[in-house]
Write a structure and sequence with these properties.
This protein is mainly α. Helices cover 67% and strands 0% of the residues. The model has no long low-confidence stretch (mean pLDDT 86).
Length: 55
């Protein structure tokens, strides 16, 4: 089956089992979680500084 852009949408590799898929998702959250928290903390600090500046 081909997608709209002409690339094939089928995967050639083996499918992940339910356990493997959950482990992959957990690993992604563990990897990207601290990065996301730092970005949110940075925006929060910037918003607080702007609030204090214009107060």
């Amino acid at each position: 089956m081909e997608g709209l852009d002409g690339r094939k949408t089928e995967k050639n590799g083996e499918k992940l089992s339910r356990k493997e898929k959950r482990a992959a998702i957990k690993a992604a959250f563990l990897h990207y979680g601290p990065i996301l928290l730092m970005v949110l903390a940075s925006f929060s600090v910037a918003a607080i500084l702007v609030y204090l500046w214009f107060r």
